[in-house]
Description:
Blueprint: E1 6-8, H1 16-26, E2 30-31, H2 39-47, H3 55-69, E3 74-77, H4 84-97, E4 103-106, H5 116-125, H6 131-158, H7 167-179, H8 185-201, E5 211-217, H9 219-223, H10 231-238, E6 240-243, H11 248-253, H12 257-263, H13 276-288, E7 293-299, H14 303-319, E8 323-328, H15 334-357
Parallel strand pairs: 1-2, 1-3, 3-4, 5-6, 5-7, 7-8
Bound molecules: iron/sulfur cluster.
The site of iron/sulfur cluster (SF4) has 15 residues, from helix 9 and helix 14.
Amino acid sequence: MTKKRxxxxxxxxxxxxxxxxxxxxxxxxxxxxxxxxxxxTLELGSxxxxxxxxxxxxxxxxxxxxxxxxGADTLLQTGGVCRLGFYGELHEQIxxxxxxxxxxxxxAMANYSKPYTFYREFKKxxxxxxxxxxxxxxxxxxxxxxxxxxADDYIRRNIGFEQEEGAFDRLRADFLNSLALVESQKELRxxxxxxxxxxxxxxxxxxxxxxxxxxxxxxxxxxxxFSNHYIxxxxxxxxxxxxRWMNISNSLFHYPKKEIQARIRGYARYNMGATSMATxxxxxxxxxxxxxxxxxxxxxxxxxxxxxxxxxxxxxxDYKIPILYFSFDSQTADAGIQTRLEAFYDMMTMRKxxxxxx
Length: 358
Ligand code: SF4
């Protein structure tokens, strides 16, 4: 009988819940959730990372170290369509140099168009894996991610306007705790439906024409609230409706690549990598729908999103829509972000007021 692995994966929003499900139910591994991300996570990651590497690399490294301290012995690493594809090897080298005796499952070694290759990578660590069991758990994991994303879409549209402050956050925390206990797809279906009804039952008081802000940007920074200094929450607190298309369901399970390329042909003909095309397409869509502003989020040093910025400026000029750009690094301070968000909000309010009276 093989010893149960204690596997971990860096924080990525709240997606650690479905990842844990997959590890436990599908791969027969224990899961070690890294400690909540903090200043220490960033400091640890930055201390041992190359200076100019993008922020997700540093954050992941910090999470790995903290999870190892908590008992993890196997690190799950992801591949990606930018330099992220090389990060696994570099993390491994750094952690080995630091003396950590851990194993790695590097999904960059798998081929995304051949699902079997993922099974092959996991089997290297757990030779007793059962393909039917992994497949079943994977399906439930996908449904779990979809139910989280659907709930978050609804919450994002309404959270600034609940009559009882904190009602959405409390119910969401409850929802995640319940998801963590799910054992089957049937249970998940019931739970997700039930919580969606409860989210919709929270009384909200929304003005007729609230400010609407679209959020676009780099994959990790845009989806991980800690990495983007909780920008969406801050905008919601000010009273803006926040919309964001980028999530795991849309980007991994239902990514409309051809449609995106066709829709932005007038602005960008060649793929600039990673999430850049989706960023442009969403920004264009927000502009066409008459949103009051767009917030672009990226990590410092992110080449694909840097390349997308001149295109966003063209969209901004053509549709007269303001765009606020954030580039985050481990050094970025909360106070500066807050000031810029407040100024952006005030500017959007004035423009909306002027448009209504003029
Ligand atoms: S998309 Fe940008 S920030 Fe994200 S891993 Fe790639 S280069 Fe780094």
